[in-house]
């Protein structure tokens, strides 16, 4: 079963897979095949397993528990060495009953969760960013940077805006989140906490040789600042082709790279002081 903080928002594309398998199980009849065939490449057992995995992944724990309580028994009735038929037969009624119980539980459990539509071109690319955006950008709970709630929210909003096609908003959120990470990195390197000093001032100080910041890192931060951040913060000066998905992906990747470089540098510094 899933553990940890319960997810409160889903992409429609995530829920579609749950719905597709659930509808197939609700419409199960005696002639349906148990295992994959040329016309049904999943089979009823496969759909039961996929539904169970999706409910667990989406942290719909009550619905997943309803399914898990019966699934092993039901599969044992469908899949055993001496079974002569490859069809559901009388077990079709049991499959339908179980699917209805899961649906009833799901309607109650998911009623207070938000759902948003992910842009079709983003499908398959950003699942990890949507599920755990902070980790997607290389930041974990054991990392040296202490991220504020606002910074974490910016990472989450960047992922959601990218998923639904709000490219300009995605760029602005990820740049603001990255700037917060730079402040944390600055504090680790200089021993001084800063809250209002802008991106440009931070990178100018980080270039001071005695601080020993990696040149590729400060160069990348400079590039993001000059070519991306300053432009993103003045939306009236942007043309449509400067807000497309390719630009958003480039900014996301560059910010992710810069964040990982900052993490690695701080870790190396910690190792040198041990």
Descriptive report:
62% of the residues lie in helices and 2% in strands. With 274 residues, the protein is mainly alpha-helical. The protein has two domains: 107 residues; 156 residues, Four Helix Bundle (Hemerythrin (Met), subunit A), CATH 1.20.120. Helix 1 packs antiparallel against helix 4, helix 3 packs antiparallel against helix 4 and helix 10 runs antiparallel to helix 11. It starts with 8 loop residues before the first strand and ends with a helix. About 2% of the residues have low confidence.
**CATH top-level class of the largest domain:** Mainly Alpha
What share of the residues lie within helices? 55-70%
State the end-to-end distance.
40 Å
Class based on secondary structure composition and strand pairing: mainly alpha
Please tell me the overall pLDDT.
81
Shape: elongated
CATH 2nd-level architecture of the largest domain: Up-down Bundle
* SSE pattern: EHHHHEHHHHHHH
What's the story with the biggest beta sheet?
Answer: 2 strands, parallel
Q: What fraction strand?
A: under 5%
Number of strands: 2
Our count of domains comes out at 2
Count the DSSP helices: 11
Features:
274 residues; mainly alpha; Four Helix Bundle (Hemerythrin (Met), subunit A); two-stranded parallel sheet; 2 strands; 62% helix; elongated
